[in-house]
Amino acid sequence: MKISDSVLRSFRVARTYGENSQKVNCVDFSPSGENAVSSSDDDCIVLYDIREGKPKRTLYSKKYGVDLIRYTHSDTQTVVYSSNKLDDTIRYLSLTDNKFIRYFPGHTARVIALSMSPVDDTFISGSLDRTIRIWDLRSPNCQGRTNPLGKPVCSFDPDGLIFAAGVESQAIKLYDLRAFDKGPFASFETRFTRVCDWTGLKFSNDGKQILISTNGGMIQILNAFNGSVLHTFSGYNNSRGFSLEACFTPDSQFVMIGSEDGRIHVWSTESGMKVAVLDGKHPGPINTLQFNPRYMTFVSACTYTVRSHHHVNLIWTELFHICESCSSSFNRDSGFRVWTTFKGMMVK
């Protein structure tokens, strides 16, 4: 099924989960799109079965805390995540037996960015120690590091050959993974019209665009090849400076972000026009937002809950029953919500 303006406008909440007692700080889909994992400030790791629409298991990281959780490449049974409590070591966890496979020490301040390679076991991390480190899941030793001279956010491109570093909320530097020690091969500055911190960096799946998230009520899309500004999007509430995650749809045609009033705003990356505002009845700021890489589903999370959202079509009447059964949970604490289209419908 092709994603379009009308499809996006017809998404509805299909599931609401209240598994956590504190903020859900990160959600990630497995490469197959059939599983999701969340991390939260109450030290919980919750595993979800997207096809069944229910949580499967809860694990705990009480000693170290858990943040920036990521599935590893092509594996739904292992994750890496950063600590938000004891130290700045990154941990590699088996979800099957709840045991650590490996530790990745090296950072001397909190890790604020974590990106898995889409093609192999490499991953990168950015830290408040003003370094980006390159790792391989098979070794605890850092494989290399860059010093971009500022607080970095970072992300791999969809081919796993290049990574981008957003530095000091004012410049993007592009590195060739095979020659990162030679420094960036391209660098370009971009500024917003208001003072804000960059909180995230993402490539579109076609590799042509870079999305910059901020805490200032504005996001920006750049041309990934020359750094020119394609669009600047605003008009969503973030007066208190929350770190709100933005994301592309899998076809790279739309970008979406939550807001502090619990709504989700969607723009076309081609026209720059806002095409939808979705209300998932989140009682707080939507800090986490991810679109499923394979199915017509996305998840949004605020303080405690996760919600799953479904695109409703008259042909699939069972989804109306699903949505009605969820409506009573809208007034529960806060949440993780899942939104999706008809069962089994793949994204084209």
UniProtKB/TrEMBL annotation:
Main location: nucleus
Cell location: Nucleus
CDD domains referenced in this protein's UniProt entry, alphabetically: WD40
One Pfam entry name: WD40
UniProt signal peptide: none
UniProt KW keywords: Nucleus, Repeat, Transcription, Transcription regulation, Transcription termination, WD repeat
Top-rank taxon: Eukaryota
GO CC terms, sorted: Set1C/COMPASS complex
Keyword Glycoprotein: no
Alphabetized SMART domains for the sequence: WD40
Chaperone found in the keyword field: no
GO molecular function: chromatin binding
WD repeats: 17-58, 104-145, 248-277
Record GO biological process: DNA-templated transcription termination; lncRNA catabolic process; negative regulation of DNA-templated transcription, elongation; negative regulation of lncRNA transcription; nuclear RNA surveillance
Family in the record: Belongs to the WD repeat SWD2 family.
Protein name: WD repeat-containing protein 82 isoform X1
Organism: Xyrichtys novacula
Lineage: Eukaryota, Metazoa, Chordata, Craniata, Vertebrata
